[in-house]
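Below is one such record:
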Amino acid sequence: MRNILGIVAVLLMTGIAIAAARAADKMPAPTPDDKVLGQAGAPITIFEYASLTCPHCAAFEKDTFPKLRADWIDTGKAKLIFRDYPLDKFAMAAAQIARCAPEDRYFSFIESFFDSRVSWATADDPVGALKGIARLGGMNSAAVDKCLADEKLQHQLAAGEFEARDDYGVDSTPTFFIIGANGGNKIVGEQPYDDFVKALTAASPKS
């Protein structure tokens, strides 16, 4: 697999709790290319910036996200927009494969890659291991190879990472922005569910 220029490979995992977004940072806004989980008209938007090789991101997916989804996303109170912030070339490869998956399987691929992160990310051939997972999701090896050779997709993902860093102050994963009618909050790191509830409640429309 060709090297991908410009991928930030620094892991800066911190335990910072909820913090208001820095005044110098903008807040992200939805785009047509976003992958959205939940109802389009939900009043709160959760932006998640994550790397598929990030252990803290995988821990959030396992320990916190199921309750967040059940209480806020499945009930129509919030929607989640997942944005890739690949920390290395294998995270980039996994992000590309998920993007090339059938539209209705995108979040299933993300979940599978997080669930099996240790096995594929530490394999002798991580890309080969990713191909095995993709095959279970309905993508054959030729489809994965074509996807990984898509330079336009590589550049799109890299550009999204640079935008997150330069415009929104994202410098570690996971980083979340919770935005609603009452403004937004930034959560950095793998924080407990109660911290998300505080930010979500603060962003909720007032009755």
Observations:
- The first strand starts at residue 35 and ends at 37.
